[in-house]
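Revision sheet: structure tokens.
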Amino acid sequence: MENNILEISHLKKFYHDLSSETEALHDITFDIKDKEFVSIIGPSGCGKSTILSILSSLEKPSGGNIKFRDKSCVIGYMLQKDFLFPWRTILENCLIGLEVNNTLNEENKNYVISLLKTYGLYEFKDKYPDSLSGGMRQRVALIRTLAIKPDILLLDEPMSALDYQSRLAICDDIYNIIKKEGKTAIMVTHDLEEAISVSSRIIVLSKRPAVIKKIYDIKLTDRKNPLHNRKTKEFPKYYDMIWRDLDVQI
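Predicted:
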């Protein structure tokens, strides 16, 4: 697999009801390199989130192969909403995954506390979610996901519930945290600007049944954080090319 942490070959997905069969994914093939940040975009309902659900074993594929470099590969899944429990403190929310996996010990708890300190949330560890802004709650959700020390992070539109200004700020936060922690990330998003600003590659899906229309290598001059990357000279070119590849109607 060389530097690939994940290889997906000829992935298919069908949904059935009493009277019909619907093909959601048709022959999806791509790979993910270690520590890469890849975005998947496409029209609404094309099956982007279905791919994440299959990778996280929430759904079973109808065909094809999924090969992880390591059989013990740990998957972390960050959803659109933070789903923080209002009756638990910030620290207690961050420890949920460890409790569920029965891996909560002093070492792992100290790791979570170190994440809270590093990313500016330690002073809120004994507060409750309703005392935090939307952006801060998403940072907590990311730390909760990182607590289990995942090899691959799946991000399902993690900024979609925020207003535009908050999205820009938390996009920088999430990107910087993922890069600093050396994680591999696969993100589903409807926001093309967001995808270009964070990704090393972008996978463009067609409308359902989804096929891969094109995979773009995003090469930006002087790549830094997402906010800065939106100002690079290549950004408008990628936006125009990828927009034309999307099956969207205005």
